[in-house]
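hey team, just a heads up i'm posting the complex here instead of the shared drive bc the drive is being weird again. everything in one block, sequence lines first with there labels, then the predicted structure for the whole assembly after. its two chains so it's a bit long, scroll down
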Amino acid sequence: QTVVTQEPSFSVSPGGTVTLTCGLSSGSVSTGYYPSWYQQTPGQAPRTLIYSTNTRSSGVPDRFSGSILGNKAALTITGAQADDESDYYCVLYMGSGTVVFGGGTKLTVL
Amino acid sequence: QLQLQESGPGLVKPSETLSLTCTVSGGSISSSSYYWGWIRQPPGKGLEWIGSIYYSGSTYYSPSLKSRVTISVDTSKNQFSLKLSSVTAADTAVYYCAQMGVGATNFDYWGQGTLVTVSS
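-- predicted structure starts here --
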């Protein structure tokens, strides 16, 4: 079974830029996997940030951007703020109506 | 603004069937554009997709849960439901319902989630 991989943790300084990635245990991520990204703070439901690789969900600031970098999907946060400290999950569409979550990245802003 | 609300028992005994309902407001579950999904998150762990349904009743299930999951839709009540049979403590989780985007490739709107504990 294909595993969707994410960095377990990452840290960024306030005002800095960070890129989180989403890969496959076997193969490369392309736009055909329709990568999407979600932000979750403790005790809250996830919030949709990005879908279809690079389309921001309504109300999401343009500090958040999505792309394909090499063989992975990527979420870049520019000008990191304290309230960006959250867990970030990617989702890949595997075809035939199935999707898979990555294990999530815990982002620390310090 | 679309809103989703999960409801159902917060405590289920081992070997029994977990049943949850998601009520959709601010939009029609019969919209031809969207799928509707269930996701869960065990305490302290990551998110896991359970399955999805179209208003017509067409379903997709996670391969790891397929043998125990049934998702159904009631368009007259603007609701969709989840049943997970033969539960164990490993099924203890916060269960979320969500609207999925066109083609069921991503999640758009999320419910607030409901904690279901499996314990005798």
